[in-house]
Write a structure and sequence with these properties.
Blueprint: H1 12-20, H2 29-52, H3 58-95, H4 110-158, H5 166-194, E1 201-205, H6 206-218, E2 235-241, E3 246-250, H7 251-267, E4 274-281, E5 288-293, H8 326-336, E6 340-344, E7 351-356
Parallel strand pairs: 2-4
Antiparallel strand pairs: 1-3, 4-5, 5-7, 6-7
Length: 364
């Protein structure tokens, strides 16, 4: 609880009203106001009737009628305004950074619906704030690692501890490339969050397209261990059926999907392993089913729903040469198409299945 928005201790009246909330008979503000009018008229009529059949003066009856009406008005008004006052208190706390408080939404009228909506908004803001803090912490950590490694290499060269030979420069280049990759991924995520990425979907032939993507990926395959070197021992295999298969998607976004999935598969492949990219026709026109299979250790079932989260590396952990953003970007690109990406069952290694819905161009 934030010290800036600690609520005052509830009074006896607040505690009584909180206990009576579950038995609130009103399902709308209109009903509450109608009850107020009817009750006031009924009490006034009853008191006038009593006055007509007794020696009580009319002014005494009027005073009692006013007092009774005020009591009923206070009861109904308190019930209507208590959630609003609570929302005000919670909103002040949220403005000061406390997103943990919620409004007691026990009413069944429009104020109760507003309280429910307010609580959902508070939960969303709490999640966004938590995500922002996690993102800043993760980005700081991810940037610090390659920068520290690059600085150490350059300091050793400047201090004469090591020579500026090709091996040393290759190590510095690898850290610079890792830093560049992280920045590129962060730019992709910033476009993701801003929602300004347009989808330029076109029809294309799958075989030549995926062949070019795999050729580009094979030029930059990186090992996952310290002192990473290009992994030329991992064989990339393309399986497209039928060979003349066509699909309808955004080529640039799909390139991000395939490249990130292949990069992730290669990182977890054993020596002389095999990574297969399989493409088949989907259910609808222009749709596409893609699968990327590797022969690595696979993904435990408990982690399969989390591998597409940002900075999640499963059991790999920091220092694996990756940024922890590749699969998150792949999911984003698939979601942009309205498709689905998931970790599918596989007897060996990992199999990630991507389904793109496609769309047939309008006939000319």
């Amino acid at each position: 609880m934030s010290p800036y928005s600690a609520p005052r201790p509830p009074s006896l009246r607040d505690r009584v009203w909180a206990a009576l909330r579950p038995w609130d008979p009103f399902r709308s503000i209109k009903a509450a106001l109608q009850f107020l009018v009817i009750a006031s008229v009924a009490i006034t009529t009853f008191l006038i009737y009593v006055a007509m059949h007794s020696a009580t003066e009319i002014r005494i009856i009027t005073i009692f009628s006013i007092i009774a009406s005020l009591l009923i008005s206070q009861l109904v008004a308190h019930g209507l305004t208590a959630p609003l006052r609570e929302m005000t208190s919670v909103a002040i706390g949220m403005a000061r950074g406390d997103y943990s408080r919620r409004v007691t939404a026990a009413r069944r009228d429009e104020v109760g619906e507003l309280a429910d909506a307010f609580n959902r908004m508070a939960a969303d803001l709490e999640a966004v704030d938590r995500h922002r803090k996690e993102l800043v912490a993760n980005v700081s950590h991810e940037l610090r690692t390659p920068i520290a490694a690059l600085r150490a290499v350059l300091e050793n060269v400047v201090d004469g501890v090591s020579e500026a030979d090709p091996e040393t420069m290759r190590t510095a280049l690898q850290q610079a490339e890792r830093l560049s990759l992280l920045v590129a991924h962060l730019l992709d995520l910033s476009r993701l969050d801003s929602g300004i990425v347009p989808l330029d979907a076109k029809r294309f032939e799958v075989w030549p397209y995926l062949s070019a993507v795999l050729k580009a990926a094979s030029l930059g395959l990186q090992d996952s261990g310290p002192g990473a070197r290009p992994r030329k021992d991992v064989h990339l295999h393309l399986d497209v059926s039928p060979p003349e298969l066509t699909a309808y998607a955004d080529a640039e976004r799909l390139h991000q999907v395939v490249a990130n999935l292949v990069d992730n598969a290669v990182k977890h492949s054993p020596p002389s392993g095999r990574v297969t990219v399989r493409a088949r026709r989907g259910a609808g026109p222009g749709s596409l089913d893609l699968e990327v299979l590797d022969e690595g250790p696979g993904i435990p079932e408990a982690e399969r729903t989390r591998v597409f989260e940002r900075f999640n590396r499963g059991s790999a952990g920091p220092g694996d040469g990756g940024t922890g953003l590749g699969l998150a970007i792949a999911r984003w690109a698939v979601d942009l198409h309205g498709g689905d990406i998931k970790v599918a069952e596989s007897p060996r290694g990992c199999r990630i299945h991507v389904a793109l819905p496609g769309s047939a161009p309008a006939p000319a």
